[in-house]
Specification:
218 residues; mainly alpha; 73% helix; globular
Length: 218
């Protein structure tokens, strides 16, 4: 069987390259496109590659994907998801406060545009992309496949750190590296604790929803 590590990272690299290419194609040299309705649904399209990759890997044997898509057996999984979100918010706040105090502006988390959701019908389309599509596909790839595949090879701690590093570098702004890394560590632990993708998805989706809500109401 081909080296899945290599193939997975190659698919991720192609996805990231397509995302950057789309951003450049629309004439943007910043994190967000100048026309709000282009972002984020257009940039979410390349993530189809990640979804197709996971489906193709699990296409021969559906059992692995079923083991992560079942509802958690833990009764308090919703509470654990909320605690993960709160812990992520605290980590982001402490990081932002520290960077502000030491005055390193390029390491500050970027400000999300107020009009990120666009206007009219694109508001719902973009909201779907940010809150449902992106969290589900990313969690399916990073936790459902990558973390699950790496744990037997590298152990839990090393796998969590490796997945979080890869997840961190996918986010191109230096100001997002530490917050994304910490959130990924927490969500990865939640995934292992509950043995299900849904708590991880709920935490990821909630964090994204909070970001766009704060941006839109600013």
């Amino acid at each position: 069987m081909p080296n899945l590590n290599l193939i997975a990272l190659l698919v991720l690299l192609v996805t990231l390259t397509l995302t950057i290419s789309l951003r450049m194609a629309f004439g943007s040299n910043t994190l967000y496109l100048p026309l709000s309705w282009y972002y984020p649904w257009v940039l979410a399209v390349p993530q189809l590659l990640l979804l197709l990759f996971v489906i193709s890997i699990y296409g021969i044997d559906r059992k692995p994907i079923k083991t992560v898509l079942h509802l958690p057996y833990n009764e308090g999984w919703v509470r654990l998801s909320i605690l993960t979100v709160l812990a992520s918010i605290v980590a982001i706040f402490l990081y932002s406060l520290t960077i502000y105090k030491i005055d390193i502006s390029y390491l500050m988390p970027p400000q999300v545009p107020k009009n990120i959701l666009g206007e009219g019908g694109f508001t719902l389309v973009n909201l779907f992309a940010i809150v449902l599509w992106v969290p589900f596909v990313e969690e399916l790839f990073f936790r459902g496949f990558l973390l699950t595949y790496w744990i037997p090879k590298y152990g839990r701690v090393r796998s969590i750190l490796l997945v979080s590093l890869v997840f961190m570098f996918v986010h191109s702004h230096p100001g997002l590296y530490f917050p994304v890394f910490m959130s990924s560590v927490l969500i990865s632990y939640l995934f292992i604790k509950t043995k299900s993708l849904w708590p991880a998805f709920l935490s990821h989706a909630t964090l994204n929803l909070l970001v766009v809500t704060v941006a839109a109401s600013a």
